[in-house]
Design goal:
3 strands, 3-stranded antiparallel beta sheet, mainly alpha, 122 residues, 5 helices, globular
Length: 122
């Protein structure tokens, strides 16, 4: 597993926060499978594997970036399915996302431009 610098997010965590905030804005909270579908629709990739996604969600909830709670049993029962673990992005999670986006932008802006349109190299 990759080592994390304190105060940084893995790329999947940035993706989870971005998609989670979008889902949260429309639904109020989000659950793992809806998040996986949203992530795959963003970039057209296959669904994120169960182990990867749910381990990241657990890690993020433990660190305070996400709040997690079980939905009411009656909701699941009325739809004939198991209860879902519902997540919301916390204020700390929103701050961490902004910090990660700024850092990504800064890194991209400082990267050397090796090849630019219209330039040929001998």
């Amino acid at each position: 597993m990759a080592r994390r610098r304190p105060g940084t997010l893995f790329p999947i965590e940035v993706d989870i926060l971005e998609s989670g905030l979008a889902l949260q804005a429309s639904e109020g909270s989000f659950y793992g499978f809806a998040l996986a579908k949203h992530l795959s629709s963003r970039d057209g990739s296959a669904l994120t594997s169960h182990g990867t996604l749910y381990k990241a969600l657990s890690r993020m909830a433990e660190s305070g970036i996400l709040d997690a709670s079980w939905e009411e049993p009656a909701s699941a029962e009325s739809e004939g399915r198991p209860r879902r673990r519902l997540y919301t992005v916390t204020a700390e999670g929103s701050r961490a996302l902004v910090k990660a986006q700024v850092e990504t932008h800064r890194t991209e802006a400082s990267a050397p431009r090796i090849a630019q349109a219209g330039v040929t190299f001998a």
